Amino acid sequence: MPTCRIRSARLRALFITALALFAVGALILRVAQLADRPLHGDEANQAHRAGILIETGVYKYDPVEHHGPTLYYLTLPLALLRGQHTFADTDEYTFRLVPALFGVALVLLLIPVADGLGKSAALWAAAFTALSPAFVYYSRYYIQETLLVAFTFAAIACAWRYLQRPRAAWAVGFGAAIGLMHATKETCVLAWFAMAVAAAPIALVQLRAARRAEAASPPLDRRVLARHAALAVLVALIVSVVLFSSFFTHAAGPLDSVRAYFPYLHRASADPAAGGDAHAHNHPWPYYLRLLLYTRRAPGPWWSEALILGLAAVGVVAAWRPRQPRVLPRFLAIYAPVLAAVYAVIPYKTPWCLLSFHHGFILLAGFGAVALIRLARLAPLRIAVAILIALATLQLGRQAVNAAFEYPADPRNPYVYAHTASAHLRLVQRMHDLAAVHPDGRALRVHVITPDGDYWPLPFYLRSFTQVGYFTVQPERPDADVLIVASSIADAVQQRLTGDYHVEHGSLRPGVLLRVYIRTQLWDAFMNTRR
Description:
The chain is an alpha/beta fold and 531 residues long.
């Protein structure tokens, strides 16, 4: 008996060590050169909201845009720890560090579910999570998606632990995770739906098995289960209400979190006349599948996470084998495909949304990798299969490096979507150079004129400039020290200018060009510094 315990302790130590190494690898891929890529417009928009909270301590939930408050509230302590007390003080690293750390947390959250998946399967899943190009790339994005996936996984992990040992603490953890999901992004309801669909048949099977085993062991006290369920619901409501109400300073927030579903349903309509910009993001149902299976935009490299999808398919089949009646893989075998199907049928699609269901496939892929290896009866053949899967996994890592470091804002990267052009940073640098020679410094007057408010991420990059005006229609008197104008209306704006200007050209993102007007006197002062 002592020998068995020692062996079990050693195996657990090896498992924790291996998982920690994967977590370290995930951390390196997610935080290295974190500030180098220009901010996406959505990132800048989120950063601006967080900047208001950092600077004023005020947050009010917007039921039309920006999603839930967890991203902003989690950014606040990081900014303060780094000595950043105003929006102008902040930088890309502070904002992106939040999702990056949650991307690493997805690896560590495999610890509480390791007995459900199997330790070997959990290690494979850790490798896939750490190296998945999609997860690496979007864990470096200041958006809510990685947080939503982490809180979803935390809810699943707490539910699993509760099944193993029904305790109030796990019910509280489950409720907190559900509340955090809601306070992160409105699409949490899609994950809840998939969870319910997957849990229902599993629960029926377990109840039948429990009834047959009642003679051998006492049944669970239903009153205790009811109390724990009520406790979980109460905790979820408290977490959600506290965050949406901005810690009880914005009473309309919790109600707005419910009202938000009306504009989001409106936006998700396939009809371009539905309003908003939903039609700009409408894609056919196999959009996510194509991204994950294979993409090559010549003359760039090819991209594919088909390894994960293939092993996930093996995992789905293996989960239902009679000899391996594992509850958690069976739950995932229903949950992940259902969630993927829901996202597929919604016309409104952005590529980062695939993380929600792709994480389920990653967990299944870990289970599938072990099942595939065990199909080989001879030890040498098992080793060969394991090596082949490991080599293919390293190729995922190569793609992750390409996505994060080689092609971070390049349209040849399939995960780059309506992204800010790298050339935009030259415009930002030009603005700082002009401010350096202007008598008022960063208080020089700047007018940004673009239709439909399509000027993000400029408000982030010009956050230290104090006299910037943003216009969605042409002002009667557009003159300023610098004008940044959408090319589509630049000729009309130019006709209203009364001063002399030097003209340059820039870009916001591919296909969205800008014209920059710099007062001749300011331009000459700048050019004198270059002689």
